[in-house]
Amino acid sequence: MKAPDFDYHRAETLEAALALMAEEDAFALAGGQSLMPMMNLRLTAPEALVDLNAVDGLAGVRIEDQRLTIGAMTRYAALEASGEVAEHAPLVSTALPYIAHPAIRNRGTIGGSCALADPAAEMPALLLALGAEVHLQNVKGARSVAADEFFLGLYETAREDDELVVAIQLPVASKRQRIGFHEITRRHGDYAMAGCAIVATEDLSEVRIAFFAVSDRAVRARAAEAALAGTSGGKAELENAVAALSEIDFAGDMNASTHTKRHLAGVALRRAWAEVMA
Ligand SMILES: Cc1cc2nc3c(=O)[nH]c(=O)nc-3n(C[C@H](O)[C@H](O)[C@H](O)COP(=O)(O)OP(=O)(O)OC[C@H]3O[C@@H](n4cnc5c(N)ncnc54)[C@H](O)[C@@H]3O)c2cc1C
Q1: What is the helix (H) or strand (E) element at residue 239, kind and residue range?
Q2: What is the pLDDT of residue 130?
Q3: Do 94 and 163 fall within a single domain?
Q4: What's the domain count of the chain?
Q5: In the predicted model, what is the mean pLDDT of residues 175-198?
Q6: Pocket residues: Cβ below 6 A from ligand 1
Q7: In b/e form, how buried is each residue of 78-105, taking b as 16+ CB within 10 angstroms?
Q8: Is the torsion defined by CA of 74, 80, 82, 84 positive or negative?
Q9: Among 44, 55, 142, 261, which lies 20 to 30 A Cα-Cα from 252?
Q10: Does residue 224 belong to any structural domain of this protein?
Q11: Measured from the CA of 73, which atom of ligand 1 is nearest?
Q12: Domain that holds residue 39
């Protein structure tokens, strides 16, 4: 199938892009790796596209005030190649090779993944585990929203229709940060059937656990975090955390039933936790 007719605008500045987003019932076009297939399948039919690919200053990684700022148009491939990301956000570097395939990572952007809020995507869960902030802008001004408050439901976020995601900010990881990541897929590069991302302090006094592909959105597992934080992280505590996953509103999809998702989340947590403790 082909996409329905739409107007196309190639913005060259952020101001021009924001003005177009305000004027029209427009969607931003970033890497196009999700938007174009969705349009071709007629799952979505925006009146206009505002292409962000020529906008200066929306891509790149920089350190500011102990925060890693990643421009919305930074492609996954650029994140994968970034020494700053490897050093200051090792969880992101660890997870990137699991996001789709190299051809898709060459075009797909962090801002696009964030704005789309696919429940099976890795990036929203990474942002929850890392305590990220999403920076948004429209013609009226700028604001930032904690990742915890950004992902609201199935393809639903706190972003207003005329707002662009302009950047993502992550706290710089301490040298002793512990991380764990595990996803269960049928084939490497496929969307996950269930996945888990964990960030913990060296002494396990703080633990953040997020899941993807198990519910209608990326979710924090706060009861599981509480079961592990401040403990030695042994087998008994881990099993308490697995039991505490009943807090999650599990949702089946074409890959697995709700019951299977619940089971796979426990498997992913055990495997990701083994990395945390390694
Ligand atoms: C075969 C295949 C396999 C894939 N596998 C995976 C996978 O395993 N894991 C995974 O996470 N993803 C996967 N993807 C999706 C891929 O990672 C996408 O690139 C990503 O989800 C969206 O990024 P994008 O830059 O391509 O966004 P686009 O497709 O351009 O846009 C997606 C949506 O976000 C909006 N948008 C984009 N940028 C902004 C912005 N800055 N501000 C506001 N709104 C914006 C668009 O209007 C659109 O609604 C796969 C895609 C394909 C085709």
Answers
A1: helix 235-243
A2: 98
A3: yes
A4: 3
A5: 95
A6: 27-35, 37, 52, 72, 99-100, 104, 107-109, 111-113, 115-116, 118, 121-123, 164-165, 191
A7: bbbebebbeebbbbbbbbbebbbeeebb
A8: positive
A9: 44
A10: yes
A11: 41
A12: 7-51
Calpha distance 133→102 (Å, rounded):
26
- Tokens linked to 171: 């706290």
Does residue 1 have a pLDDT over 80? Answer: no
Q: Which amino acid appears at position 156 of this protein?
A: E
Residues 104 and 46 in one domain: no
How far, in Å, is the centroid of ligand 1 from the Cα of 65? Answer: 29
98-114 pLDDT, tens digit per residue, is: 999 999 999 999 999 99
Q: What is the pTM of this model?
A: 0.97
Secondary structure of residue 255 in the 3-state scheme: coil
DSSP secondary structure string for all residues of 81-128:
H-HHHHHH-HHHHHHGGGSS-HHHHHH-BHHHHHHH--TT-HHHHHHH
pLDDT reported for residue 189: 85
Any idea which residue has 């107007």 for tokens?
7
